[in-house]
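Bumping my old thread because nobody answered last time. Still need a sequence for this structure:
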């Protein structure tokens, strides 16, 4: 069983940033990632454009050159992949971490492939793997998906999109322009307040002209093979339907955190407990980095404001090892 100074769980941008800091400081480290490099970004919609400009997505002061001020998914994949390969980062891909156990001062990590021990753990696992479900009859039908990739598949189909965030709005506009008959089902009274400012006028105009239908203050009651039933303030409706994109958001793997010994506070928000000055959790020598620190508030942390976590954590680990 190999022992390492640091194991980083998650090979997204923040996990990569932590590895770069560990490498610079001479630690024996390993990233363990259940999918490919920046797996969450890989699973984003093909045409997705970031809200942030390229310089705000940079890690370790490595320039991110983009054709536009706000880069797209394919450019981000190229950027982070090149960082991993050019710096020869130690990363194991397509290896799921099953459990973390602490024995005295050493962590035991079991994956689907092998076991490791480490002195320090950094959890940077993000939140994109577990969808927020609607918990309605028919949600498990093959016609329903919680992820959207690209619009061609939905051409000439009656498509219901549940949600009003950036992902829902992007999907609605793209699919409408490829010939889908789009109906949006929005839980609140309006399109999401955090929708990208250059996209919001487009979706509002398409709704106003009737190109995209919308039901506000609406919830899904049931999904059937060829229709969907919804509740609105004006009554219940049955809509003819071929496919449903339930883009209702995602959440971290709270079960994994709790099983690792991390305390979750606030029954609704499920904030993991950590020291904001060091990012160390309530489990000594186990650190948290990136969006996972926000619990259910997945909008609190993102690449541009959590890049600093890497240096904060490695500074803390360095002080511990020196002392």
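Sorry it took so long. Here it is:
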């Amino acid at each position: 069983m190999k022992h390492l100074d640091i194991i980083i769980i998650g090979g997204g941008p923040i996990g990569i940033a932590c590895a770069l800091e560990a490498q610079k400081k001479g630690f024996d480290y390993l990233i363990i990632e259940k999918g490919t490099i920046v797996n969450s970004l890989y699973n984003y919609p093909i045409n997705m454009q970031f809200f942030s400009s390229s310089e705000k997505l940079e890690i370790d002061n490595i320039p991110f050159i983009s054709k536009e001020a706000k880069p797209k998914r394919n450019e981000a994949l190229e950027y982070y992949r090149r960082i991993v390969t050019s710096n020869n980062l130690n990363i194991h891909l397509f290896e799921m971490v099953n459990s973390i156990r602490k024995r005295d001062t050493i962590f035991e990590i079991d994956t689907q492939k092998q076991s490791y021990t480490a002195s320090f753990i950094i959890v940077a696992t993000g939140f994109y793997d577990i969808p927020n479900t609607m918990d309605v009859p028919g949600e498990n039908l093959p016609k329903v998906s919680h992820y959207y990739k690209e619009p061609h598949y939905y051409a000439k189909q009656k498509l219901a999109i549940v949600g009003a965030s950036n992902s829902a709005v992007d999907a609605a506009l793209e699919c409408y322009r490829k010939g889908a008959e789009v109906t949006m089902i929005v839980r609140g009274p309006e399109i999401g307040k955090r929708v990208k400012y250059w996209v919001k006028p487009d979706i509002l105009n398409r709704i106003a002209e009737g190109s995209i239908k919308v039901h506000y203050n609406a919830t899904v009651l049931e999904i059937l093979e060829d229709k969907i039933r919804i509740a609105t303030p004006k009554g219940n409706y049955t809509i003819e339907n071929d496919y449903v994109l339930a883009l209702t958001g995602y959440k971290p793997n709270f079960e994994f955190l709790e099983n690792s010994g991390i305390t979750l506070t606030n029954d609704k928000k499920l904030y993991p407990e950590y020291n904001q000055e060091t990012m160390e959790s309530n489990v000594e020598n186990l650190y948290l980095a990136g969006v996972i620190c926000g619990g259910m508030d997945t909008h609190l942390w993102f690449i541009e404001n959590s890049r600093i976590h890497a240096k904060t954590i490695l500074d803390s680990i360095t002080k511990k090892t020196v002392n």
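Helices lie at 13-24, 39-42, 73-86, 166-177, 200-208, 254-259, 303-306, 308-322. Let me know if any region looks off to you.
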